[in-house]
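New to this. Please check this record:
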Amino acid sequence: MVRFTEQQRDVPEENSIIPSIEHFQAEDGYQLAVRRWRAANPVSQVVCLHGIVSHGGWYVDSCEHLARSGSDVYFLDRRGSGLNMQARGDVDCFQTWISDVERFLGSLRSNLPRILLGISWGGKLGTAVAGRQPGLVDALGLLCPGLVARRGPRPWQRAFLYGVGSLPYLSQQKVSIPLRDPSLFTDTKGWKTYIGQDPLALRKITLRCALADCQLTHYAHACCDRIQCPLLLVLAGRDRIIANEAVHRLITGSGETNTTVIEYEQASHTLEFDPCVDRYQKDLASWIRGASRV
């Protein structure tokens, strides 16, 4: 395994799989950073999508575990987030996020199963991608997915975003992401310090990005019934960000019969930083192996 101190995640242990940093060109020319872990004899391709605050650097241990288990792993940093410094915290519309992922998935080898993993906010994007083009992915993993938030925008806030988010003279104004407290993500002291000090974490987004997020939520909910591939839903029992029961109803009521649900009852939102991480990684790798054989 790659082991990093809780304050620094760029010092790998000996014999670890070092991810390469590659770049993928989006349809509009934007260069998206991608961390890639190469498996010795890959049997599947795993594409990961991160949360609204996080980036691929938070999840290096799990990615290496999946690579050692036989998957080529790609972690795509969202435009304006993580390693992508251009147009920080901004997007023109939610369809651009979907296009970025669809285009990247379409660039992968066709002879290996394509598994899409959406973590937190990335679960919302992953649902939209899998529902919009059902044949594009062979399996979808939703890991504490941000489909229903415990504290989402209030009606007046949504009305405000729809009113001003598309106005040219206001759309670039930035607002703080309401997830500033690291304890929302984890109860582990060292990791809370890491999150609070992470220079690549996203803290602010533009008003039009906030509007795109609201629109993506609505679109992702509509896509749940269109998912046709094997689906994994992972929940953290002590999640302070995600409304677990509402998410569970949304996913299990979608009509997809090949759905696996795993809940870690004592875990917090970011499983990567939780004491259950070893069990979570083994469960995730096992599900991917099974989904790759379907």
About this structure: The longest strand covers residues 31-37. The beta strands are 20-25, 31-37, 44-49, 71-76, 114-119, 139-143, 174-176, 204-206, 231-236, 259-264.
